[in-house]
Amino acid sequence: MATAIDDVGTRAPPFAGTFCYEGGHLVTGWHHHEVHQLEYALAGLVEVEDVTGHYLLPPQQAAWIPAGVRHESVLHAEVRTISVFFDPTLVDAPVDRVRIIAVEPLLREMVIHAVRWPTDRLTTDPRATTYFVALGNLVAEALQHEAPLRLPTSEDPIVAAAMAFTRDHLQDVTVEQVARAVGTSARTLRRRFVADVGMPWRTYLLVARLLHSMTLLARPDANILSVALEVGFDSATGFGRAFRAHSGETPSVYRRRVLGTQTVSELRE
Q1: How far apart (Å, rounded) are the C-alpha atoms in residues 79 and 204?
Q2: Residue 8 and residue 120 in contact, taking contact as beta carbons nearer than 8 Å
Q3: Handedness of CA 96, 98, 99, 105 (dihedral sign)
Q4: What's the Cα-to-Cα distance from 208 to each of 56, 104, 180, 212, rounded to whole Å?
Q5: Has this prediction a pTM greater than 0.70?
Q6: Are β-strands 53-57 and 61-65 bridged in parallel, bridged antiparallel, or unpaired?
Q7: CA 47, 48, 49, 53 torsion: positive or negative?
Q8: 256: closest CA among 217, 209, 211, 229?
Q9: 3-state SS, residue 241
Q10: CA 166 to CA 212: how far, in whole Å?
Q11: What is the pLDDT of residues 203-238, one digit of tens each?
Q12: Contact at 8 Å (CB) between 233 and 209?
């Protein structure tokens, strides 16, 4: 994905353009851009990681990836995305880390319209810069309302190992099991977890369960009760309450939203 914009030889500052991806599973590897990237998921799921956190990008939301931030993206099977690239002078927005934002209808339509100006275009259009400045202003406004779709990461080897074990055993994991797996006591693990990432292990477990449930709910054949049980909830009711408290919508509304998408080719027509 980086080469799609890094190899443009006819770029005229300030540069902005779009790159659409529609295909199978893809892991980008760790890289960074000299321009800002807004990646909007039309369908499928994208995971993005930088040195500060692990982020889930469900359909109909967007990832803000600032210029210079090293990151790795994992695009799962049957994903469709539009990436908008901005010269840093065009957007007044946070540049410290990746962020996930909800995409309101106006921002969505402007991202879709922007596919008329791909990154590899060979002709100039004086309207493009004006358009991308307006789009950048919308992005900057949306970034004031970050979506709660982030799991922290850790450089503490014990905490990092505990995080990995937790994510691999979401259905029925306990803090005692995690502590044994990483070679420490439950009390020490709880203390190190809070000191290192600023949240209790129990909160990390809850957020990890909810983020993984979003991945499962995006599948066309998903069943809400089955998803709830798979990620460790005892009932669909309890899962629904937790999901709504975290995301602002019920699992069924989320499913309808993320599955109601169009193809990139349809958007270009």
Answers
A1: 27
A2: yes
A3: positive
A4: 10, 25, 20, 6
A5: yes
A6: unpaired
A7: negative
A8: 217
A9: helix
A10: 12
A11: 999 999 998 898 888 777 889 999 999 999 999 999
A12: yes
Q: How many CA atoms lie within 13 A of 112 on its CB side?
A: 20
Helix (H, G, I), strand (E, B) or coil at 55: strand
Give the pair of three-digit tokens for residue 120: 């590899």
**Two tokens at 33?**
């851009």
Which class for 67: exposed (0-12), middle (13-18), buried (19 or more C-beta within 10 A)?
middle
Measured CA to CA, the distance from residue 90 to residue 78 in angstroms comes to: 31
Decide if pLDDT at 69 tops 90: yes
For the cut 50, the answer to whether the pLDDT of residue 187 exceeds it is: yes
Q: Calculate the alpha carbon distances from 218 to 59, 224, 252 in Å.
A: 8, 11, 10
Length of the chain: 269
CA distance 253 to 256: 5
